[in-house]
Design a protein that fits this description.
183 residues; 4-stranded mixed beta sheet; 5-stranded antiparallel beta sheet; alpha+beta; Immunoglobulin-like
Length: 183
């Protein structure tokens, strides 16, 4: 009985060692192949990047829902407030702001926005204070997302429930603009 317990403990320790070694050897490949790296390599700051089937196939860690069309926009708030807009006919859109580690900092959808169009301003702490005290006309109707870090990306996803909605979703994403506002 005791020999079976010792054998089970020994096998458990060996299994844990093998698992930990596998994780250690897989980490470099996974960390170099993350969404931030893909977006940073594929698009300049403030340039909308359409995430299509080919781009997501090239990055094995970029898992997107097949019922959504997506575009990303990289930002650096040290250059100013990032203002993201898009308009069109979409049954549902969502936008999320991520830091460079892929952590969601802010998320919104068309149900909480002031209109069916995307109008999002991403600000850091200093820009948020200014925007609260002296809201610029460009941001009067915008949803404000505060980010703790200066660098990150926003991912806009548009729902296309079937193939007939795909052209509408693509047109919606084509109108996406990412521009810096300095104030």
């Amino acid at each position: 009985m005791i020999s079976k317990i010792i054998y089970a403990l020994f096998m458990g320790i060996i299994g844990a060692i093998i698992t930990h070694l596998a994780i250690i050897f897989l980490l470099p490949g996974l960390s170099a192949n993350n969404p931030w790296s893909l977006i940073a390599e594929s698009a300049d700051i403030g340039e909308p990047l359409r995430i299509d089937d080919q781009l997501s196939a090239d990055n094995q860690n970029l898992f997107l829902d097949p019922l959504f069309e997506a575009s990303a926009c990289r930002f650096d708030l040290s250059e100013g407030t990032m203002h993201i807009t898009a308009q069109g006919d979409a049954p549902l859109w969502t936008i999320a702001v991520y830091d460079t580690a892929g952590t969601v900092l802010f998320s919104a959808n068309d149900r909480i926005a002031n209109s069916p169009d995307v109008d999002l301003a991403i600000v850091n702490a200093a820009q948020l204070r200014f925007a609260r005290e002296n809201t610029p006309d460009e941001l009067a109707q915008s949803v404000i997302a505060a980010a703790e870090l200066n660098e990150g990306f926003a991912l806009l996803r548009v729902y296309a429930p079937d193939s007939s909605w795909k052209p509408n979703a693509e047109r919606f994403l084509e109108t996406m603009q990412c521009e810096f506002l300095a104030f």
